[in-house]
Every structure is written in C-alpha cells, then in structure tokens.
Design a protein that fits this description.
Helix content is 43%, strand content 22%. It is an alpha+beta fold and 258 residues long. The radius of gyration is 31 Å and the shape is elongated. It is a multi-pass membrane protein.
C-alpha cells in the first residue's frame, strides 16, 4: 500500500514538473514570437522612413535645373548618388548601333532604345531614347525618328548596374540584340565602342516629341512601391492578437484552476 502511495506521489510530481516545463516552453515560444513580430513591424517602419526619404529626394532632383556631364561624372567619382538627376548633353547619335532593352510601357510590350551619343571629345554616353512596340524594333521601320546631326538631349541620369539584378532575370540575348538587364560593359563591347570611352552611366531622355513619334521618350518610372506602412500594421496587428490570445488563455487556466 505504501509503495503504491509513493508511486502515485512520484507520478504526480513528474506530471507537475512536465506541466511546468510545458508552460515555460509555451511562454518562451510566445515571447520569442512576439519579439519577432514587433521587430518585423519596426523594420517595416524604418523601411517606410527610408522609402519616403528616397521619394522626396527624387522629387527634389527632378525639380532642379539640369547639370552637364562633368557634374554627373564628379558625383560618380565621389561615390555619390546620380539617380534621377537632371542633365543636358549634346552630341551625335550613332543610330546604327542602338541596343534594344525588353520593356513594357503603358500596358504595351516592346523595347527601350538605347543609342550611343558621340560627344565632342570623342567619348560616348548611352541614351535611353524611349519606347517602341515590338513591330518597330528594327530601325528601318521608324526612319523619321533616326535623328541625325547635332542633337541636344535633356533627361535624367541613371546609374549603371554592377550585376544582374536577380537570378530570375533572363540572360541577355546578344545575337538578337535583346537586353533583359542593362549591362553597360556588354552594350559598349557589342557596339564596338572604344574601351574607356563610354561614360559610366545612362541618360533617360525626356518626353520631347521627335519626328515620327518613335521612340516615345520620357519613360522613366518614378512610382516606387511603398507598402511598408501596411506591412508594419500587419506585423503589429499580429503581435497584438498574440498578446490578446495569450491573455485569454492564461485567464481561462486560472479560472479553471480556481
């Protein structure tokens, strides 16, 4: 009889110990999850502040008077941000060396036309002249837009890419002259432009209309996705829900225990 009592007491103690461990593990899991949710919400708020600052900076740059290429190159040399800075440049288009970048514009699929502009000092800068639909890929289909002679281009400076932006982006199809990402070095090499003579950035031409209307300029996209506030509210909301559910659970346990 005494042996059975001792066994029962031991079992109750073990059960009590397991219960305390389970509650402790539950508390740790809840606190860790809560900390993760709050951290995610806070990170999204930080991203929101960064994105709003970026959009403000872009708006300010677009409103400033255009600068020349020397000013843009000085920024590049200093490691500064040249994105969306207004710029003006003069030169002569090498229309027979345009590169075609796969793109969509206003719901249509086609290409952005990147044409080297030869400058007075013998250097070159690639100009994103704008959009053409699929059936206007070949230059002979839009001869009126193949501007000749001295040209002045107003537009926005765009930084070069150091590498392919994502593994999901296809490789550039050099045989068909179709680029899926803006590899400046390859654009210059396949164009046969002298090494070291190509400026290390692009320029997006503005929407100034040209004869024949193609390419359509002014294709730079400014509407960057900014959903960080929604994400932050979601994460904070989940954290609040976890607190409420945990509180209800603890309250019921105490009530049942009483």
């Amino acid at each position: 009889m005494r042996g059975r009592v001792k066994s029962t007491v031991a079992e109750e103690r073990q059960a009590s110990t397991r219960g305390r461990l389970a509650r402790l593990c539950g508390i740790v899991v809840v606190l860790a999850t809560l900390a993760a949710l709050i951290s995610l919400g806070t990170w999204q708020m930080q991203r929101l502040a960064w994105k709003e600052g970026l959009l403000t900076a872009i708006a300010e740059r677009r409103s400033k008077p255009p600068v020349d290429l020397a000013a843009i190159e000085a920024l590049v040399a200093e490691g500064g941000d040249i994105e969306y800075r207004t710029v003006t440049v003069s030169g002569r288009y090498l229309n027979n060396r345009e590169r075609h970048f796969f793109a969509t514009h206003q719901g249509r699929t086609g290409y952005y036309i990147y044409t080297p502009l030869e400058l007075s000092d013998g250097s070159f800068v690639f100009i994103n002249r704008g959009f053409v639909p699929f059936d206007a890929k070949e230059p002979e289909t839009r001869k009126a837009g193949q501007l000749t002679g001295a040209q002045t281009v107003n537009g926005l400076a765009r930084a070069r890419l150091a590498e392919k932006p994502s593994w999901v982006v296809p490789e550039n199809d050099l045989k068909k002259n179709i680029f899926y990402w803006k590899d400046l070095d390859v654009m210059a090499q396949t164009d046969g432009l002298p090494a070291g003579k190509v400026r290390p950035f692009f320029i997006d031409a503005d929407a100034t209309q040209i004869p024949g209307t193609l390419p359509v300029g002014g294709v730079t996209q400014f509407e960057l996705p900014n959903n960080h506030l929604q994400y932050a509210v979601t994460w904070y909301g989940l954290a609040g829900a976890l607190v409420v559910i945990s509180g209800v659970f603890v309250f019921r346990r105490k009530t049942q225990g009483q």
